[in-house]
Specification:
226 residues, Dihydrodipicolinate Reductase, domain 2, Rossmann fold, 4-stranded parallel sheet, alpha/beta, 4-stranded mixed sheet, single chain, 2 domains, elongated, 19% strand
Length: 226
Amino acid sequence: MGKEIESVCSRRNHNIIVKVDPVCGDIPALTKEYADKADIAIDFSHPETAYDNLRLYTDFHLDAVVGTTGWYDRVKEFKKLVEESGIGYLYGSNFSIGAHLLFRLVAHAAKMINPFPEYDIMGFEAHHKYKKDSPSGTALSIARIILTDKCDRPVKENELHFSSLRGGNIPGIHKVIIDSEADTIEVSHTVRNRSGLALGAVLASEWLKGKNGFFTVDDFIAERLG
């Protein structure tokens, strides 16, 4: 993702101040010296470092766009820190514009079939074997109820089952299946590469400029798509 973001930034005439990574970055951790030179941080790291990274952003008063997932059980804690610091902080499980079009299509489809109890809705997602969280943050955005373990009972009414698969080098597949005895409808989004995610993150960074507060990628998308 870092390389993809760097490529997008170059095409959009943004300067990369520093690449932060403990293994392959210019520096292993963000410092105040570099934070003072930057307008914003774009963070695609790991769930276990999300809080420590946030503390750096608030301490250095640096706005941030964060694509890291797996920490959403601490949203209230993160929001409190952001609001106390006065920085702009935007996070999301998926920055792909195509994925957000999927969300809208699924929401519309679910509303359309609501009067027809003959139809069930279920979901499926697949990612590469290195992905840290399962189900994905995008799957959590799609589903109200997620079951990734074997379900030894009938499906409850109004319950959505979402299965997760990890393996290989799959960038990302999300599929919603609407099924009845008579037919099946599928709405899906398949990522060919990470360039779309990187573009969305950079566009979100441009949108965040000059704003203070705690935002999600949905706030950015809602303004762009109307």
